[in-house]
Amino acid sequence: RRASSTPGEAAELLDRACWKATDESLPMDLLRQQDQIHWYQEVLFWEDELGDNGLCRLSVRVRVMPTFWFVLLLCEMRVDNVMLREVGTRLFCSFDSDTVLREWTWKEASYEALKSRGINLADNPQISHSSIGTSLLGERDIRQRFRHKLQLSASDVSAGVG
Predict the structure, then answer these.
(1) d(CA 132, CA 55)
(2) Residue 134 clears pLDDT 50, i.e. is over it
(3) Per-residue confidence at 11, pLDDT binned at 50, 70, 90?
(4) Percent of the chain with pLDDT over 90
(5) Confidence band of 16 (pLDDT split at 50, 70, 90)
(6) Side-by-side strand order, sheet with 142-151
(7) DSSP state letter for 26
(8) Which of 145, 153, 157, 158 is nearest to 17 (CA)?
(9) What is the pLDDT of residue 87?
(10) Interatomic CA distance for residues 4 and 136, integer angstroms
């Protein structure tokens, strides 16, 4: 497929784009494979130390692999001795597909809940000045998850839009 030739064509595609709820999950096995990375970029949009009471940041990571592209927009927050929260939007598209998958997930756990699982938060290498610690959150900490699929129509592809 070729990229849109004009901004008007791209805008027209976006006007017709419609995300629909789906049960289809992201192909995590494929995302974990150690394939060659053709292009990668990470951008930190903002970071705040919450008045020295934790850390909050918003970043995006984009990865282009031989067979797909993947985007992760991640907002992470740690309020010291209170809670950890991660809100992430993941976008995935295989190059042999006309669909884009989107998954939005909100994970959160209190320090008390994490301690009750035997996680030592006082001297944990996952929690530091630069590491928020959201890697300690797991499936049981998911508060909400939405999955959507964007189907690009054959007419969009054949017209060179998309």
Answers:
(1) 6
(2) yes
(3) low
(4) 68
(5) low
(6) 19-21, 142-151, 99-110, 83-94, 68-79, 54-64, 39-48
(7) P
(8) 153
(9) 97
(10) 41
Q: How many residues does the chain have?
A: 162
pLDDT at 42 over 90: yes
What the block records as the tokens of 89 is 């939007």
Backbone angles phi, psi at 7, to 5 degrees: -60, -30
**Do 143 and 137 touch, CB atoms closer than 8 A?**
no
Phi, psi of 14 (to 5 degrees): -65, -35
- Tokens at 75, concatenated: 């907002």
Q: ∠ CA(142), CA(148), CA(150), 5° rounding? A: 155
pLDDT at 128: 80
Cα–Cα separations (whole angstroms), residue 102 to 19, 26, 73? 9, 8, 11
- pLDDT mean over 41-59: 95
Q: Which one-letter amino acid corresponds to residue 146?
A: F
Could you give the residue ranges of the DSSP H alpha helices within 3-104? 7-16, 28-32
Residue type, 54: G
